[in-house]
Design brief:
The protein is mostly beta strands. Helix content is 0%, strand content 55%. Strands 2, 4, 5, 6, 9, 10 and 11 form a seven-stranded mixed β-sheet that branches. Strands 1-3-8-7 form a four-stranded antiparallel β-sheet, with no helix packed on it. It starts with a strand and ends with a strand.
């Protein structure tokens, strides 16, 4: 069973930085997309940043210029460098991978981590 292990969350003051990491428990046959989502209390989960196997990245407007996603498909890992953090960035951040687990298992699936809490104080 594929597991995604996130780390790097915590409490930081506004203006500070954090780096989130996510490592998969298996070596994927191939990965299409790696991403970070977040969910704040009372709000829907939203896409924060995504990385595709072609090297393209996309960000939600509110984090552009402050967050950077990077991925290492060969290592089945994805990172999110967060700078200039704001209180409104407070949320549980989830790692997401879409890929094919193995050559024997046909098709791609979605995989989610359990989340890591990021809290930004004023």
């Amino acid at each position: 069973q594929v597991q995604l292990a996130e780390s790097g969350g915590g409490l930081v003051q506004a203006g500070g930085s954090l780096r989130l990491s996510c490592v998969a428990s298996v070596r994927f046959f191939y990965i299409i997309t790696m991403a970070w989502y977040r969910q704040a209390p009372g709000k829907q989960r939203e896409l924060v940043a995504a990385w595709t196997s072609g090297g393209r990245t996309e960000y939600v407007d509110s984090v552009k210029g402050r967050f950077t996603i990077s991925g290492e498909a060969a290592d089945n890992s994805v990172f999110l460098q967060m700078s200039a953090l704001r209180p409104e960035d407070t949320a549980v951040y989830y790692c997401y991978i879409n890929g094919r687990e193995s050559e024997l298992k046909g098709g791609e699936d979605d995989y989610w981590g359990r989340g890591t809490q990021v809290t930004v104080s004023p």
